[in-house]
Input
Amino acid sequence: MTADSHFVFLPAAASAHARHVDWIYFGLIGVSVVIVGLVVALLLTFGIRYRSGSPAPRGKLPEWVSREIEIGWTVATLFAFIFIFWFAAASFLTTIGAASNPLEIHVVGKQWMWKIEHPNGVREINELHVPADVPVRLVMISQDVIHSFFLPALRIKQDVLPGRYTSESFTADKTGSYDLFCAEYCGSDHARMGGRIVVMPKAEYQAWLDAQPGAENLAGKGRQLFTQLGCAGCHFEKGHRRAPDLAGLYGSYVQLAGGGTVRADEAYLRDSILQPARQVVAGYAPIMPSFKGTVSEDQIFSLVTFIKSFSGDREETTQ
Ligand code: HEC
Ligand SMILES: [Cu+2]
Output
């Protein structure tokens, strides 16, 4: 609810997923109302029928009542609950199942604000502009304590943790401005750690991006850092190779020195930069220094984005 709106039972629903969640919500309320109604009705019926002194029969129930009816209602409720579980799980899976080519937006939470960065480097604080009808994936991390990124209009809420990426996917289909909250108590100004998400038509989003002051492409920033921090010195060294080639690394499986493999996802790239000794690539000496404390979460996002975009164009990046 925005400040100027009057009371509404539910916040606006701005995605197919949000409407699906509302169906689950109303479905569960419906089922609960039916069950409560049934229990109350039986309570009253029996209370009156078998009140003390009433002539109603009190003998044993016939056999079929205690067997068939007992089995019948147990099985029926079991299936009802399996159906509810399936419906809710299917809906949840659509929020974590990745669309093929989502717009990836980075979110850094800190006491007490949300820092947002678009792929082309446009930054904003406590506001998230997204295009309508485009799958969006938020990759999120916290700089300090646990926060939670809550978008009621999209019915999604995901904890944002220090030291670990979490993500949230959605496709908003209704333009407008909706609330954004932190849903994890994170200190004295927690209540103010919020803002809004603005869903715009695709063309308008592009125009909005273009109108933002001099942003530098995230991968480009990463490329610069890669040289500045000396990564290029090892990773793009010609001839004698001291460090693995990073081209095409993202999404591939990496052989580790201690045996075993690991998929090179965003978390792996981040760990490789901060704790290189933890998972050493097979065939290489553990000479890579840790960049813990040297690079900020924003910079790590840039580096990770650069490595993800990197397809082996080595000449351009070496100096
Ligand atoms: C002193 C040389 C050196 C520097 C500087 C260096 N690295 Fe490395 N890097 C290595 C070596 C050697 C490995 C393989 C052994 C390991 O996993 O620790 C590696 C592994 C990696 C991996 C995992 C590669 C794979 O194939 O799984 C990534 C990602 C990476 N480095 C990124 C970076 C980034 C980003 C920087 C700069 C912030 C950097 N490195 C700086 C030497 C270096
Ligand atoms: Cu918070």
User: Anything to note?
Assistant: Confidence is low (pLDDT under 50) at residues 312-319.
